[in-house]
Amino acid sequence: MSGARTGPSGFINTLEETLIALLLGLMTVITFANVIARFVFNSNILWALELTVFLFAWLVLLGASYAVKVHAHLGVDAILNMLAPGPRKAVALFAAGCCLVFSLLLLKGAYDYWAVFADLPPTSGRWFPTGFDLKARSQSFYEVQDVPMVGALRFLEDLINYGDPYEKLPKVVPYIILPLSMLLLVLRFTQAALQVLRGETDRLVASHEVEDELEAVKAQQGEHD
């Protein structure tokens, strides 16, 4: 386990876990601060709720790909446990292929939704990209409802908004998590499929909660005996 925390892979693991923990911590702090502002100072942090929603979305979407990476998603492996190693591997590869296709579809949809806010052309094609839709109307001027513009992001005004200033945070900023998280999801399912192919694992996710509980019960009974 100590080796998992060394080298580039360990750095990425630490970075992902730190970012997820930071998002959760920020949500807690902002919500608590807003509660104090309301009930103690009879005031309100106008942007607190919207920012918390964005942070929660980032937490869920980043957590989804991270959970694939560490095999933390819940799964039902009753049928897999009944199969021989060969068929079990085939079923696992089929499941990985389905998940990979699904995540690619999500990636296309996520990019197309985000691209117009970034003054970029979305892809053409209903299911899979066949090119870029250069006639799509830019929506880079769209702003969020309450979160104010951050000074460090003023460069976006010249980059994508043709010099017009933003009063609120442009939607391109919080929505970038959509294509980013879906790209990570594609990467994680690809890695999971390669692990199955190399024989490092025989399933994408495993559900051993019942076995763990039975082992815990047996351990408790052994202590009493």
How would you describe this structure to a colleague?
The protein is mainly alpha-helical. The protein has one domain (2-224). The protein has helices spanning 7-39, 48-69, 85-115, 155-159, 172-175, 177-197, 209-224, and strands at residues 123-124, 131-132, 143-148, 168-170. Strands 1-2 form a two-stranded antiparallel ribbon. Strands 3-4 form a two-stranded antiparallel sheet. Helix 1 (7-39) runs antiparallel to helix 2, helix 2 (48-69) packs parallel to helix 6 (177-197) and helix 3 (85-115) packs antiparallel against helix 6. It starts with 6 loop residues before the first helix and ends with a helix.
List the helices and strands and how they pair.
Blueprint: H1 7-39, H2 48-69, H3 85-115, E1 123-124, E2 131-132, E3 143-148, H4 155-159, E4 168-170, H5 172-175, H6 177-197, H7 209-224
Antiparallel strand pairs: 1-2, 3-4
User: SSE string, helix = H, strand = E?
Assistant: HHHEEEHEHHH
Neighbour order of strands in the largest sheet: 1-2
Helix content percent band: 55-70%
- Give the mean pLDDT: 84
- CA radius of gyration: 23 Å
**Alpha plus pi helix count:** 7
Gap between N and C termini:
33 Å
Strand content: 5-15%
**Main sheet overview:** 2 strands, antiparallel
Overall domain count? 1
* Shape annotation: flat
For the secondary structure, the number of strands is: 4
Q: Low-confidence segments, ≥5 residues, pLDDT <50?
A: none
By secondary-structure content and strand pairing, the structural class works out as mainly alpha
